[in-house]
Amino acid sequence: MSFYFEKYESRQPEPPLEHNDARELLWQFLAVMALTVGGWYIIWRWTSSLNFDALWYAIPLVVAETGAYIGLILFTFNLWKVKDTAKQSPPSFLSEVVNYEVDNDRPINVDIYFPTYDEDPELVRLSIKDAKKVRNPMNININIHVLDDGSRESMQLVAEEESVNYIKREGNIGFKAGNLRNAMEQTGGDFIVICDADTRPFPSILENTLGYFKDSDVAWVQTPQWFFDIPEGKTLDDVLEKYLSKPGKYFAHFVQKVVGPIKIGHDPFVNDPKMFYDVIQRRRNWCNASFCCGAGSIHRREAVMETALKAYAEQLDSDVENIKKKLNKITGEKNIDKNLVELINREALMDNEFTPYRFHVSEDIYTSVILHSDPDRNWKSVMHPQVESKMLSPQDLLTWTIQRFKYAGGTLDIAKNDNPVFRKGMSLPQRLMYATTVWSYLGGIWNAIFLTAPLIYLFFAISPVESYSMDFFKHIIPFLILTELAFMVGGWGLAGYPSKASYLAFFPTNLRALWTVIKGEKISFPVTPKDRQEGTFLHLAIPQTVIIVLTAIGIVYAWSQYSLEHPSFDINGVLLNTFWGLNNMLALSTIIFAALWKPEAEEGLTV
């Protein structure tokens, strides 16, 4: 059976970014400068710049700017420094990875899990085949398990043909978390490698990660997720030559001489996770705050089970106390009959299920929160910098939207109901790191304001500041320049604009997730499709399209009014809001492009 990604099988991941002390010092210097000047700008905005004739516009915009500035502070803290966890040789025996004396020492047992629901069994077969190639120079016991929530005969047949264990269950309560719990009840590995159905582990995964567990406090190790099927795109030369012949090729050659190589259609959904894993997550190691992202992670069974038992007991106690308080209010009696207490305890037991992985759409990050906040154990996490597996990326805007909605909604739901920032047991640096994650998903609010704000001036010549004077430019330009310079250095050479544009264009999905959580609705558990979904996806980009069209009309209208010498339109205001609007249009156009994108095989050219 053939798959679309067969032509990418020979691809290899890039090595981890090399740490450089001089560059880190320069980043820290520029970051402090940017935050200092940014604080000066924000104070000036609140105290000396507001247009009191349009506070309905001025206040929301300055609130949005303040929210973004707080996010900048948190993000700077996140990226402050690199401190990789020291790598150790892999262990062979149980005594090497625990902090107690083992009476009858034995080789370590490792379980590799492949949870699946409705994915193509042949796709899962590829993952199983790669898992069987995992090297084992330590002579430990490795067992591979297919956890089939779909109870499919075809999936069972693949497991039997590949000589791996097949586990199914009746019903699928708790979805992936429930599937993992069911497997843990039937297996006994000291360590568990969590894979998605499409996760293809490299032979080196255990050699390079099990050594971290020689520190008996390490609860899990996360490896970077790497999407090996990201479209390469076409060079600008090839694209323009196809449509404009030789003149197009010469023009493209000239443009690339000036700005550097340009590829059309490369990574249309900005799926490349290198910035997230190699920069953001990796720089959380120093304060023990990198969180689990599911696929590609290795877990210490003892840590997951022990913490889950504590959380279960705490929840039971809490529920029992709440029921007693309600009865006290109703009856007015402080002492409750023993039989009634026993009944309350039974009700609490029935209402709660013990589960190593929380029944939650973001069970991975939730598990991280619980382990990091365990007050009795100093459980540690490790972000391993080297890629140890390959996965498939979203290949259409619908799949991308489903995935991003789950990420946003899951994180915001945790923040609402069990906020890690206020959870006992967390250190201050850990709280700030989790706050960075939560705050980033609130960004849809101010991003929506930033995207619509230029329209008010372009159509109505209403400014959020008293005037676009030299005083305004004196405050904002140094802040913008220093911020760009700082994060160019802090991003370790990775291109930052695609991620920023994607984050800005993500605002409708972000707002929908936020509204869903505020309303108290559950975030659904849909499996992210592994195949490209067919159809047109422009309907998913309607908000972005509307803003692009309105901004284009507004720019034309504002310049026409200025040329007619309309007294309300001044050159500074028109220029500033034109450039602001053009930047918004460029960022939002990435979603339009993603909605229209089709693989090369479907149209002969990725555009």
Would you give an account of this structure?
Helix content is 54%, strand content 7%. It is α/β, with parallel strands linked by helices. It folds into 3 domains: 4-80 and 429-603, no CATH class; 94-230 and 270-308 and 354-393, Alpha-Beta Complex (Spore Coat Polysaccharide Biosynthesis Protein SpsA, Chain A), CATH 3.90.550; 234-261, no CATH class. Strands 3-2-1-4-9-6-10 form a 7-stranded mixed beta sheet, with helices on both faces. A two-stranded antiparallel sheet has the order 5-11. Helix 3 (121-131) runs parallel beside helix 4 and helix 13 (428-460) crosses helix 18.
Our count of domains comes out at 3
How many individual helices?
Answer: 19
- State which percent range the strand residues make up: 5-15%
The largest pleated sheet is described as:
7 strands, mixed
Helix content: 40-55%
Coarse structural class: alpha/beta
Instruction: Provide the low-confidence segments as ranges.
Output: 348-352, 602-607
Along the chain, the helix and strand elements come as HHEHEHEHEEHEEHEHEHHHEEHHHHHHHH
The total strand number stands at 11
Report the span from N to C terminus: 28 Å
* Average pLDDT over all residues: 87
User: Could you tell me the radius of gyration in angstroms?
Assistant: 27 Å
